[in-house]
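Question (not urgent): is this output format expected?
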Amino acid sequence: MDQLIDKILFSGIDNAGKSSIIYTIKNQYHFMSGLKPTTGIKRKNYKVLDIEFILWDLGGQEAYRDSYFEREELVFSDVALFMYVLDIQDEERFDLALSYYNKILNSMKKLKTNPIIIILFHKTDPDLKYDEKTKIFLDDLRKRFEKISKGFDVTFFETSVFLKWSLINAFSYGLRKLSDKSAADLMKYLKEWAKILGTKSLILINDQDIVVGEYFKDKSSYLEINEKMENIVSIAKDSIKTNKPTIIRSANTLISTDPIKIGDHNLLLVKYTDDPKKFEDIVSYTIDFEKYPDLETILNGYFKNY
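Got this back:
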């Protein structure tokens, strides 16, 4: 049977930052200085882990928004993943952004389309990320979106083009959700490896910076490692090319990034602990991936739907 190609819909009102997000994810920074707003609908095929999907980028200008609902069956049907972008610095237009989001969901309900939804609270730039006032109004925004989104699978991410990892993390999460079966199979192994190694966190990244799988012992582990991932990925990027691990050590934490190859997949296993007693074990112990013969099959089928 032919492989189905997933439809990913990117939307939001104008100037929310959708085009910049797409180019950042694709590592096309040289386009960013001359970006123009998306006009109308742009559709493009992409490949991640050799799996194709179609990304629909809907221009957010008022002149185009109404036209999408005139063609709602074409635009809003058969959507597998819906990523809605909100500019958190554009407070005057929050109500407009919420109203537009609500209108899209109403069309999806009418068409019996039930996608995975990711809402990006975008432009949560470094100077705002830890601001108490920002945290309060983001909590309020979440509640307003959740009220509108009843019946849908919705997850929120705070993102910024100045924090590339925040975008990679959100997009990777969406791709993993498209393949729950493979993601669940991989999670089983990550839990097993974390127990063997004694780590608090394990993250598996491919050579396109897509997070293939992740395991965190608890919420604090998730927060700790994600705060550091921006630097970890940039420092450890050469590990895949050189096939040598990178060790990042402080008095109380250790992060090891180990390059691994499974079939045609070049991957990076990021290991994290804040227990100094585990440091040497984590650095010296190597997982024998040959003991997991179905791992390549899981990766090959990661985003495939039949």
